[in-house]
Amino acid sequence: MLIPGGYEWLVLLLVVVLVFGTKKLRNVGGDLGSAVKNFKKSMQEGEAEGDKPAEPAARIKQDEESGRVFDAKSEQHAEKDKDKV
Cα separation of 29 and 20, whole Å? Predict the structure, then answer.
């Protein structure tokens, strides 16, 4: 496989400019630049969040007799339903 040299790159660039136009290429370049900037920003935010300790997960309560597992949310709904009856 041949790698294009200097003149081949110039011809290729000329064809791309003729097909897409300079305005379209400028817009694509700007969009690509802003995408890279946003990606770097989100990576820095992710690293900052990684330094913080994780929040503890909700406690899980297990009924020993039946072996069923209940989470805190469903218990709250069950208590509300008992009050309504």
Answer: 12
CA distance 59 to 76: 13
> For 39-76, what is each residue's pLDDT tens digit?
999 988 877 766 665 555 555 555 556 666 656 555 55
Determine which of 1-10, 23-32, 66-75 has the lowest per-residue pLDDT on average. 66-75
- Distances from the Cα of 22 to the Cαs of 16, 32, 34, in angstroms? 9, 15, 18
Domain limits, the chain: 6-49
How many contiguous H segments (helices) and E segments (strands) does the chain have?
3, 2
